[in-house]
Every structure is written in C-alpha cells, then in structure tokens.
Amino acid sequence: MELKGIHHVSALTANAADNYSFYTEVLGMRLVKKTVNQDDTSVYHLFYADEIGNPGTDLTFFEIPRAGTTYPGVSSISATSLRVKDDNALQYWKQRFIEYKVDHDDIITVGGRKIVSFRDPEGQRLKLVSDETNNGVKGGTPWKKGPVPVENAIIGLGPSHLTVNDPDPTIKVLTEVLSFKEIDRYPSLVQGQQDVRVFSTGEGGTGAEVHLETRPDLPRERPGRGSVHHVAFRVDNEEELQYWKERLQSARLPNSGLVERYYFKSLYFREPNGILFELATDGPGFTTDEDPEHLGESLALPPYFEQDRERIEARLKPLDI
C-alpha cells in the first residue's frame, strides 16, 4: 500500500487579512474554506486551493496573531512548492512578481525542472515549479474566476522540501515506514553541501515528492510567522488510514490516532528529526457543507462546533471576503 502524494501543507501567519489578500489577489488561489483551528477555535484556519479544493492542492494557514519571526534552520519543512502548467507560466509569474513587488529569485533549473523561488510578505519560503515534464500525479483545476489566467494559474502543491541535520532517521521513516522510494539526487544550491535527495510515492511526479536536504552547518529552526507547521500525505480512505496507524505503531512511532477533521480524517506523528507529518484521507472534501459556487465566503464550522458558533465568531476578527 502506498501513499498517493501530497495532500496539503499547513503554515503559520500572524495576519489572516493580509494573508488572504496575498494568496487570493496576488497568487490567484481560491479560498475554499474559512474556518477555525480545531485545536484552538479562537483563531482562523484558512484553506487556499484549486477550484473546489481537490486533495493535493491545499495550502492552509493557521493564524497566530502574536507569532514571532522565523529563524530558518534544520528539523523543518523549509520550502513549499506550488505547481504551474509549464515553463511559459514561470515567465508570466516572474513579470507578475515584479508588478506586485514580490521578493523573488530568477528562474533556474533544479533537478530537471524549472523553478522560481519567492517569499510571501511574512517570509514564507515558496517555489513555483513547472509541470512541463511531469508524468505523475495530475494537477488540480484552476479557479476560473480568479485574477490569474487559467493557463498560468497554480494547479496544486509540488514537492515539500525538508531540511535536517542528520538525514538517516528521516530516510528510514520515509522509505521503511511510509514506503517512499529514493528516485534521484541533485546538487544543493549551497556550495559544499551534500546533494539533495528526492523521494517519491504513488504515481510520482511533482505532486508526490519529498526533497531532503542535509545541512549540518545550521541550527534548529525557530518557527514563527512564515514557517510551515506540517505536511500531509494523501490516503484514500479511513480503512487505509487505520492500516497506516497500525504500521506506525509497529514501527514504534508515537502518533495521534485517528482524528476527525470533518473535511477529512487525519493521523499525526513526528519523524525522528522532529518534523510533523500528517496522513489525511481524500474525502469527504470541502463541498460537504458549502455549495461549490460559494466556498470560503462565510465562516464554516464542523457540526461539533455549531453549538458554539456565536462564541467563536465573537472572538474572531472579521475577515472581509
């Protein structure tokens, strides 16, 4: 049994309103769910994705208003990739970044794919990666009502980039527990460092990879606004999620057990370098409680929070959509 690829990536923001403006107005992603952090209902949890929030397209943010500055380092998800259709789209984005004064780098080729690295206003480390040569997991469906032409729009999540001090424990979990396969290596962009190692699962391709970088020269990351909280991998259904729970227990990896998130079911655990992984089911999805035409327009709460809606809404700063 194999994981199907990247399900979602969850990151931290100190300002939900500014975050919403950047990811919808500049990056052209759709806010498919405006809800709350189910572990702390006093703050927002925002989901940006393709047209209907297909698995593998969700970049989510927990709002932590007092979050401090991120100090990059190891034991981290150090960059998140966003997929675009082809190399031509990167040219469009380079001009768009200039127009919107987005901090970005030049287009380069890394591991056989063209990419452009950039940062959001809080320093979130992001990459656009071209699907020009992708033969694996298909991308999502761009939001047709967004500000970016569909031929250039973001179509999903690409490889998650992990940075660690010692790669061996992480590799053991990826390959022996989660059944990823090492398929490639490419030179680090930092002179004198080891090659970045590429691990793939399921159908492979840009939507199903983890890139592992070894940096013994760096301290442990101090997370804050602009850092990544966790990466989630796709599981078909709850039955398979139970299988993975038992597999983690057999490997003596402490885990959360199955967690109800309403839009999907989840299982959380930390690999030995301290990076938080989640396994999440593909369904039921974000249209389970909202019409596809009106996703993200109002505060959505799972049924088990509805009795507290008035109290929850009173504690949230209004977010105009």
From TrEMBL:
State any single GO MF term. Answer: dioxygenase activity
The record's listing under InterPro entries reads: Extradiol_RC_dioxygenase (IPR052537), Glyas_Bleomycin-R_OHBP_Dase (IPR029068), Glyas_Fos-R_dOase_dom (IPR004360), VOC_core (IPR037523)
Record domain VOC: where: 5-131, 156-282
Name the source's superkingdom: Bacteria
Q: Which UniProt keywords apply?
A: Dioxygenase, Oxidoreductase
Q: Which Pfam families match?
A: Glyoxalase
What's the name of the protein? Ring-cleaving dioxygenase MhqA
Annotated gene:
mhqA_1
